[in-house]
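> @MW can you paste both from yesterday?
MW: sure, first one:
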Amino acid sequence: MGPMSAIGAFSYLSKLLEPVNRDPRNPLSKVGPLGKESYKVMLDSAGTNDFMAHLQGLGVFGILGPLGPLGALGPLGPLGPNGPHGYKLADEGVYKMANGSRVDTREAAWEPNSNRTWPMVEIFTSATAAESAAVPKGNKLDTSFVVTHSFSAGKNLYHIAGGREPQIISFVVFPANGLSSANMYTLEIEVEAAGKKHTIKASQALLLNWVQLQHVANATYKVKIANTNALTLGIGTYRLVVVGSVKMYDVTAEGPFQKTYFC
């Protein structure tokens, strides 16, 4: 039952590094936390408690679920810098193969005869680095990245393209270290789709602000970070995490707490 066993951590690492059509039991497969069966087990065991249901995409606690920064698609998962993909995280925050070519996606088995392509989670150490990485993509970032940036350095606006595929996108901003903990960082997201614009704000005081939304095909996003604590004079460092789910993820919560736009 240890890490070297058939269900241990090293077993999962080796499975992800194998040719993707050999064994679908990797962390990004349908038998992992992204599959419907995982939720069925959790929901069945939860009884009358609906906490598990709200860990699903668009749920009240969806940011803590598999689509948030702590989930399988986030920076701590197999698509992040410590994942078993064999790529090197370059100084500029993107992943590269041994020959120096850039890698933006990773294929992994979803089931025995089906693979899925997932976006790598880039790790940028400044807004400038994120801006540079976006140049080959039409000056827009994709929906899976982390940026750590000094608020006082400016450039606290990020341009993101969600692509053609439907997906759920999670955004969360928080202080990057203890010295920045007095800051109250807020999110303002301008969504543009089909010629229409709408602004979503997350600006709760003394809380970590986050947004989780259903992406409309070809929508673009302008994500602005603000610091609402005037006492800190804008000094401090924040971390913005954006996690996209790609089109296969269709396990979502429903309820009156959700708002609908572009309908």
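MW: second:
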Amino acid sequence: MIAFSSKKDYTFNRNDIMLSPISPLPDGEGRGVPGKEAALNVYTVVHIHFTGHGIGKQSAAGISRIIRQESDWQDLPEDPIIIVTATTPAMLSYLPHVKGIIAEQPGLTSHAAVVSRELGIPTILNVHNATHLFQNGQTVIMDCETGKITVGKQVEKT
């Protein structure tokens, strides 16, 4: 877990991955206090950012599901954002049920790009190693206009 104890906004930037808290750990009144330990059971939200090439201007939020094989389509969460190396014609029957697509494959004429435009699914392409960097069950927010993907994780300080 990463804890921050000042009002300064910390950012770690390495190969298109940024790690930044949306706020410092609060005191009893919700303000960050430099050098002060946070109380038990205080939640902080850490966002991890990825970038790629967005298709369209839509945004989407949902729960991540990595799809590597046919069996990964079983028990999809509600409003899934699928993470794939590339989409294929075999996936077409499943795609109307997803809220967004994150694909490692680049290209405005790739299968994922064409299908996302046809079905109106928010898609971000060219996200290097996405199937290895994401985990199933993460909260994912996609902004296709900027190509930015935010993964939020809520952690408890004990």
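> thanks! The beta strands are 12-14, 17-21, 42-51, 53-55, 59-66, 80-84, 100-103, 123-125, 139-143, 148-157.
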